[in-house]
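Q: For a teaching handout, I want to show students what a protein-ligand complex looks like in token form. Below are the inputs, and the small molecule is adenosine-5'-triphosphate. Please produce the holo structure.
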Amino acid sequence: MVSVKYSNVSIAYGDFVVLENLDLDIRDGEITTLLGPSGCGKTTLLRALAGFVEPYEGHVYLGEEEVTLLPPQKRNTAMIFQNYALWPHLSIFKNVEYGLKLRDKDKVDGEKPWYTKLIWLAKPFFIFVPQTHKSVSKRLKEEKEVYFENKPKTAIVIWWLKVPLRRFKLTFEESTFTYLDFKATKDPSWAYRRRRVFEVLKLVHLEDQAKKQPTQLSGGQQQRIALCRAIVVEPDVLLCDEPLSNLDAKLRHELRSEIRSIIKKIGMTAIYVTHDQQEALAISDRIAVMNIGNIEQFGTPTEIYSNPNTLFVAQFMGTSCAFKGIVKSSDTVELKGGEIMKFKTQKSIDTGVEVSLIVRPDNVSVIDKTDNPIEVQINTIEYLGTEVKITGKLKDDTILLIDVAEKTEEYAKMVVGDKITAYIKPEETFVFIGEERIY
Ligand code: ATP
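A: Here is the structure, written as tokens, with adenosine-5'-triphosphate included.
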């Protein structure tokens, strides 16, 4: 586990400056998310740590070591990408083993006994063992189905000619343990690599898929393998570049908790890039919200959501509605349509100043009458059983979003066009002058 530090980093592509004088301190063992809209520079910041882009100014540190100008292969980082980037021609085992072969050539788990060689020599006779024979035939059949798809006749004939040799090879493989033990006597690092590969495959419960090709796995399984391939080399920092973007919503949801629990289990520092707020809130220890090359706010998910420092963060994180108005007194604002809305700030604001008020839908109630009533006309109403989602129009047609999760049955009689009174909690209303939050 190491910490990461960006100090005064500026990066440009040609004349186009993407990041300018950026500072960020990432603690060891934490999952930090870079969150922001497309093009704000998240991936560039990640790539600067991996060594794929070079800052023209500033310093990048991995732990105590400055890595600003170090080539990528000299940094102990590993990356997972949106498109998995698995080798299609290698089995799952070999995909995961690949990095170990490059980085951990000399690591060994100990020699194998001499008799494993004898066992290996006896291997061809395993073809007569019914179980081996059966599983070899099954694998050949599976390979045939994949291979024959859209192939010309000549390729099919060549495949059939190769069958005896392939059958022989598969027979060796199918008696996995002794075959692998023999390999370990020839290649001392093999046993270590095999143990590590199966260790990480077990973390994602895919150890029984080791012999398959990547195309035989689902998208979610492929991304799990990509995660294994990255963590197997025990990097100082794991870099995740929108790893879940290619997956459907349900799988994204499932996999984000799985990724978090695996990273936490092995205790690794990780930087995670996404533009999905929910994902960032769910997976991170801390979030850096980025906007046009700047970090607008850096904090825990709760701080970022419940206490946004800037108008951008307040609007970017979660759903909210924004109202513009003019301050009328120390705690009231007149909205454009003439409605009066209350707010609460410690700092006083001069009357006549234009402010933006940000309200989260879950801070509005209808049945429970609290302070700060405001009349709205129902524009849409969705009764979802355990919650009700309403959009209400104010007098100047701005929209107020209302989410209620209690007494939902009482909303069942409301219809579009009804005028209702919504109550907005003044203490939960964020007040901004321009971009700056007024507390
Ligand atoms: P996304 O979420 O869409 O991936 P991002 O926040 O990760 O966006 P970056 O990929 O870091 O953004 O890109 C930041 C800016 O730099 C963008 O405007 C992009 O067009 C530009 N950019 C990225 N890579 C290059 C490049 N190789 N050459 C020139 N401009 C680039």
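A: Two things your students might notice: Residues 13, 16, 18, 36, 38-44, 275 surround adenosine-5'-triphosphate (CB under 6 Å). The first helix runs from residue 42 to 50.
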